[in-house]
Amino acid sequence: TPAPIETDALIVGAGPVGLFQAFQLGLLEISCHIVDALPAAGGQCVKLYGDKPIYDIPGTPRTSGHGLAESLLEQIAPFKPQFHFGEQVATLAREPDDRLRLTTSGGKTFLAKTVFIAAGVGAFVPKHIALDGIARFEGTRLFHHPESLDRFAGQTVVVNGGDDIALETALSLAAIAKQVTLLHRRDGFQADEAVVARMRTAVADGHMRFVVGQPAAFDGTRLQVTTPDAQTLELPVDALVACLGISPRLGPIADWGLELERKQVPVDTEKFETRERGVFAVGDINTYPGKRKLIVCGFHEATLAAWAATAIVFPGKAIPLQYTTTSTRLHTLLGVG
Ligand code: FAD
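Above: inputs. Below: predicted complex with flavin-adenine dinucleotide.
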């Protein structure tokens, strides 16, 4: 097992609030690592409304979900936070020396002086096909929302799902795979009409097949399907690709001993600290009297949480407030002037 990564701060979640957390920590000379289950930064802004406009970011009359994520990444770049994408933080436990040990689904371990839970509504993870024992084929014969389709060239592939992503995936695969079957539980789709029309044409032209039914069993090479009229079909497959949507899961955070209230982590409003010393919670994941799930509120929370962390990272040291406008020290940190 690789050696644990030691850090002043670990941020769980690279949504807008987790990103701004890295900025506030950077100004206070606290270095950090950031872990996110998604393959890229931005959280809900990118995943749920990337191209939609946002009008209530202070000083920014109009941006988009993507635009905000890009601006935040540019703003925190001078502090060189280290990102770990595509991994979920799974466990959190206290070490005898008071540091916090965190492990990820990707097999990494962190030893952190402070932790900032900026997990929003939870980790965005693909919905799984509910069949016993199917997980053992993950990554070899079973794929959820694959990033790239290249590996399926020349293969016999079944795509399970009925939304835009499922249909687009099946259509893209039709061009490179040996045979593609789209499998959906009904002959109706939650997808753009134009995409559905392209799919129907591809089926009519014999470029792909469409089967109505539900997966019933999978042994890695054969997929058993139950049809609406209770027949069983058997489809030979090299790969089963599940595109059943991506939904947020609070997941492991519920097991970290933080006494959740309605799936939110209670914090105080001085430090935004949880009941565990050195474990802060900011953004949509936290709750306190008057809480509003807005980005601007998360930015304020992250600012005060960073200041509170200085007492742990630099014990006994009084940190003066400095302005980014005038402080030469901050200019050096920001690499400006
Ligand atoms: P999120 O954006 O949810 O990011 C959390 C991140 O943490 C995710 O990327 C997730 O994958 C990751 N994560 C969670 N658990 C783990 C784990 N265990 N391990 C690793 N990673 C994990 N707000 C506004 O202020 N103005 C608006 O105009 C506005 N419009 C909105 C429109 C829509 C359609 C929606 C859905 C929301 C809107 N919001 C708006 C709300 C705003 O998007 C949220 O308040 C904001 O995204 C919260 O940021 P966050 O960083 O706390 O969490």
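The pocket of flavin-adenine dinucleotide is lined by residues 12-18, 35-38, 43-45, 48-49, 54, 56, 88-89, 118-124, 251-253, 283-284, 293-296, 298 (CB under 6 Å).
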